[in-house]
Description:
This protein has 553 residues and is α/β, with parallel strands linked by helices. The protein is built from 21 helices and 13 strands.
Amino acid sequence: MSDSPAGSPRLTRRPEWAALEDHRADALPQPDLRKLFETDPGRAERYVVRVGDLRIDYSKHLITDETLALLQELAVATDVFGLRDAMFRGERINTTENRAVLHTALRAPRDAVVEVDGENVVPGVHAVLDKMAAFADRVRSGEWTGHTGKRIRNVVNIGIGGSDLGPAMAYEALRPFTDRSLTFRFVSNVDGSDLHEAVRDLDPAETLFIVASKTFTTIETITNATSARSWLLAGLGGDEKAVARHFVALSTNAEKVSGFGIDVDNMFEFWDWVGGRYSYDSAIGLSLMIAIGPDRFREMLDGFRIVDEHFRNAPAEANAPLIMGLLGIWYGNFHDAQSHAVLPYSHYLSKFTAYLQQLDMESNGKSVDRDGNPVEWQTGPVVWGTPGTNGQHAYYQLIHQGTKLIPADLIGFARPVAELSDELKAQHDLLMANLFAQGQALAFGKTAEEVRAEGVPEEQVPHRTFRGNHPTTTILATELTPSVLGQLVALYEHKVFVQGAVWNIDSFDQWGVELGKVLAKRVEPALTEGADVPGLDPSTAALVAAYRNLREV
Ligand code: F6P
């Protein structure tokens, strides 16, 4: 395999890579967290990084100071900070789509200057935020009415991928801050049941549809939006003029929006330098802004900005996204870990990991490097998880005693944010006790001697022994406010960036998703019309035939 055309050595041929392999083999062949803490109790304080309101404890990792130093050297050699600066400068670092990557400009202050091709994009960002705020206020106050003059009570966001997961996740996360007199629903699946269930109990006269699609060509979204339009018109007597009061669009594609029949005055714009999975702090967040109000939305943007500034300015040894990204590389590339669990101990973060799945897996699920050469190293992990404590009674068994190494992030808060009764508030300590207990058990396990000392019969000892040494990062904040949510999301955005930079992949394209989109369109006529679709493989052709037969029964 030749070196990359840029002249820099391939990742696995770098001396810094070899040094990490040697370190893994010689210094930490069988890392033992009990011993690491015994010999270096100071790591409990030293391996903590603070950013904004987040306290990130990475002491329970299979690392020493030397590991960290070697990982930092890899980051220097692969010029992570150089690429970071190029991103913030607005360079076209998404090379396969020839686009700048500037989600950070979405939260830049009004007086900042961020140029793309010589044009400052910040005034445009704030113009759209102001337009969103004015609209959100009109809906929230009841000034924006539906076609029949009734106040809007229901907001239905129709979108998929980045045009759904972000607003849906953030709406759930910030529920205590939402206007409870409004109902919010999020429709993404082209399965008609999704829209059916979302609107079946709603009054069309009181319902606003937000059609969220960067490209405005995504078949699921356009199909659902078309059906929503029919539902609305059927409910309002068929007057086409109703559409203008009940449909707004969030998109980069004004032509397609107006082709769909939505007035471009009712379109909230964003730009091709915002990736779908990095977009919920753009116009894509309109449903969220209506739910929590413009001020809270801006607080969330402030939170994003805190972490942007930190990522940009903090030194490597105290740079949280850099450290988290490098830890992931340590496990994925030097311990054969295949997945990464994100386990929030907050019911409000129930959709957080699903959101991160797109952020991480669509960004770093790549197998060629930036120059198109196949990679010879592992790239993005499988990201998974659901809120604790539910997961503890489902799949934690495998993390504790299975055969796989699964690094995990445990996320928790010192205070519940909702107005809970005293009795429910008291449950918070129990929730957090679970988080801390899991982190401890995963790290330190339970030795056979400890099990025996409890009087466990010898034949059961192996079954009741926990080997420990399962690494976790614990992220703590006071409470889940809009700012803290912004901080958390930006932390993961930049962590994903760091890993993509080290792996030398383009984290900002998603060609892998395109094939499925094209094929679905090609296969559909075979289902609907029984058409002979050229190029169907024998297995798929048989499945299509079986489907058609079953459907007729
Ligand atoms: O899943 C592929 C994808 O292109 C995502 O990257 C994007 O978030 C999603 O589809 C939706 O795209 P759009 O916002 O253009 O409808």
